[in-house]
Specification:
The protein has one domain. By secondary structure, the chain is mostly helical. Helix content is 82%, strand content 0%. The longest helix has 33 residues, at 45-77.
Length: 146
């Protein structure tokens, strides 16, 4: 497996970056849709449209992108130096990003059932979390501070 990864490493890395970009786009956009959904009256045309948008974003873009990011990232882990501290920190932030993904999926279900109990401000704040995770991950991967 290591030989395969070594031979195709740059392709795997490119596909990983593409997957992460698509995943991040969804992680940034879904909470913004929730902000708009908070202002929509349950059962209204806008509310029903947002439900469709949220479901499609999660199922057609975010879930496949997350899986692809894990597959290609996992392949790259085959040839990584596991003693590097930055790698452990990065994986911890990826775990946090995965946890956030699952929270967003649960909140989407709440909106789909017209049982959201959170205000717009909550989702505005939640919308900043992916950016903070992204900054941390990029700094760790590029700078490798430890």
């Amino acid at each position: 497996m290591g030989a395969f990864v070594g031979e195709y490493y740059l392709w795997i890395k490119a596909l990983h970056v593409i997957s992460v970009i698509a995943w991040m786009a969804g992680l940034l956009y879904l909470p913004r849709l929730f902000v708009y959904h908070c202002a929509a009256k349950p059962g209204s045309e806008l509310s029903e449209t947002l439900k469709v948008m949220e479901r499609r974003l999660l199922r057609a873009i975010m879930n496949p992108a997350m899986i692809a990011a894990y597959v290609f990232g996992g392949l790259m882990l085959v040839i990584q130096d596991w003693s590097a501290g930055w790698l452990h920190a990065k994986l911890a932030l990826v775990a946090a990003m995965t946890w956030l993904h699952h929270l967003l999926a649960q909140w989407r279900k709440d909106f789909a059932a017209d049982r959201n109990a959170r205000p717009q401000r909550f989702y505005r704040i939640a919308n900043e979390i992916p950016t903070l995770l992204l900054i941390g991950i990029v700094l760790l991967v590029i700078v490798k501070p430890f």
